[in-house]
Amino acid sequence: MNKSRLEAFSDGVFAIVITLLILDIHAPSTSSLSVHDLRPLLPHVVTFVLSFVIVGVYWVAHHHMLHFIRQVDRNLLWLNLLLLLCVVFIPFPASLLGRGFANPLVVRLYGCTLIAKNAAGLFFWLYATSHRELVVAHLNREFVLWVTKIHSSPMLVYAAAVGIAGWSTAISLVLFAAVPVFFIFPNRLLKRRIGAMTQADHDTHA
Amino acid sequence: MNKSRLEAFSDGVFAIVITLLILDIHAPSTSSLSVHDLRPLLPHVVTFVLSFVIVGVYWVAHHHMLHFIRQVDRNLLWLNLLLLLCVVFIPFPASLLGRGFANPLVVRLYGCTLIAKNAAGLFFWLYATSHRELVVAHLNREFVLWVTKIHSSPMLVYAAAVGIAGWSTAISLVLFAAVPVFFIFPNRLLKRRIGAMTQADHDTHA
Amino acid sequence: MNKSRLEAFSDGVFAIVITLLILDIHAPSTSSLSVHDLRPLLPHVVTFVLSFVIVGVYWVAHHHMLHFIRQVDRNLLWLNLLLLLCVVFIPFPASLLGRGFANPLVVRLYGCTLIAKNAAGLFFWLYATSHRELVVAHLNREFVLWVTKIHSSPMLVYAAAVGIAGWSTAISLVLFAAVPVFFIFPNRLLKRRIGAMTQADHDTHA
Amino acid sequence: MNKSRLEAFSDGVFAIVITLLILDIHAPSTSSLSVHDLRPLLPHVVTFVLSFVIVGVYWVAHHHMLHFIRQVDRNLLWLNLLLLLCVVFIPFPASLLGRGFANPLVVRLYGCTLIAKNAAGLFFWLYATSHRELVVAHLNREFVLWVTKIHSSPMLVYAAAVGIAGWSTAISLVLFAAVPVFFIFPNRLLKRRIGAMTQADHDTHA
Question: What DSSP state is assigned to residue C98?
Fold first, then answer.
């Protein structure tokens, strides 16, 4: 299996999932729609934005991982499909969450899907990096460990959100949103490491 | 993040959004459909064509901007996702508008989504061009300003449409349609500038 | 506009349209489904296969045309979007046709959509080939005319189907199906011409 | 027809089909969703995972076949569209199967769709390999036969599942699931052959 075809297929799946999320927002079929009629749609819109951003972060993470992969063997291929299975599943809990944020069961289902996605990403990364022939030559042990941490820590945050849902689903939602916010907004921790790695990358290719 | 992968992913999202728009046109489930039954679908069809053309113009604009971008950093990546978020949102106000053109609230929601999309495109362009290392070398200040104007002026038209909606939604719709018409039909203003830039481009690559 | 990006975007739209067609087949929600319950789905399945094959032929025709195009200017870009607009519209009349073949109005709407698609393809081809700088050098006048005929003749068949619908929709459907059958099953007319052109193509590139 | 465009289009269709499968899982619209309300969704989720994995295996098989194809002629192009037609059809029987596993008719429809897909894949492979100019030079007769067997054997398993459905749909489902499990989990039979072929491949390209 060629790496670039794996990328193209995965990109396609990410693009479709991120777009399908909008199909879940439906306005009530009244003849004269008012602002009052649109208010119940707010949880749907919030869930749409949250899920769009989370899937967006997953897409970027997928690219970053593949950047260090040189070759794809059969196992890695199936691990990639496992990862995509989790991504494709997201619209279902997202559609439940869009109905309202008060139900702890729905919040937990959403959180568990995200945990499953991150776990699949982690398996993918650990399998690839434990097979020298699959990754680029200049990948050092320290960086592998750092990416492993970066993939694992959101799982802790999501697990906390799942645990806390019975007590306050509002806090759970803040925790869900905190993860993409950390990855999107520039912060010193991410910048230094990625900067260092990209530098090493340039040095190798130069 | 590789520029060509950003393009491919964005293309995928644009292609899916532009195609999903048709899913909103449903004929009534009568056993013997007549021309009379199809008449209420007219606003849906008009909205479909309008939104298809607007998203098409956005897709072309996206390509034109990326043509001058050499490298994509993390911030630009997230600005691109913000832009795509606005594009993916379009089917929702489009689906409301398809139910009829008389409701000012719906016309305003549609207009505000378009303004948000243009604003995101503007942020993308301004961020990229204010970082020399992200754009191609031969990009002059005059051209950057011209593209900025080209991206900003539709926002004024859309804002006028939003403002005027309370008085006449018909004029709002004409204003919405005027923007893609300006970009699609050959006119001297667009031709001269793009021609000049493409020429400069050829000279540089030659 | 780069030619390969136009191809990729068009391919995406064709792939989505061809796949969305299946969403129109829904079985009745009875607890114990029998063969009897599936019978009303037959027109849906026939329409699905017919539309899949027609869109497939359009996709192949699109590629054949683009094979001879070297460069894409703004007008050609918009003509391509017009062509895609017609393709994206197909699922709507297809969904009406799937409800049953007896309604002449629906058969006519389906036929008119196909005529519009072919007309858009014809405009695309005529515009491109009347601008020497947009097409490959070895394109001779005779071949241009032949492709023009190949694109125009289905319009006559579709028009006949539209005209005949008031008298017999069954004949209309046979006419709709005849067009892809002609293009798919090997026949001497197509083979000789395409063979000759491909040969000329090889000679030029050799 | 260029091989890489055929691949890109097919990838697009596979990616959309694999993602559309999730649209079939809908929770009941109750205000307070409980675990009890989610239980009827279990067949939908199981069918989603089963179909996702089966389509995933088809995607991988498609790539493996195309790996040995050098050139695509008109017939191969239409055989590929026939194969995609079967893939695009899968969401329909999958949607029926998701309603419950007890109905033999539905299980048979699902199985027959899978048989049709494998038969189309087989026609594709047999046509390509019986035309020397379409395949890579180092393809030996033994390997062609092995791939033919690998494509045919699932048809026997599916046919057994269809036959047995009247007696026990549970066994049919186990048989459906057995096929992707065989292809995904590493086993000596697959490994040796693919390893040998890849080796031959490397030797040829070296």
Answer: T
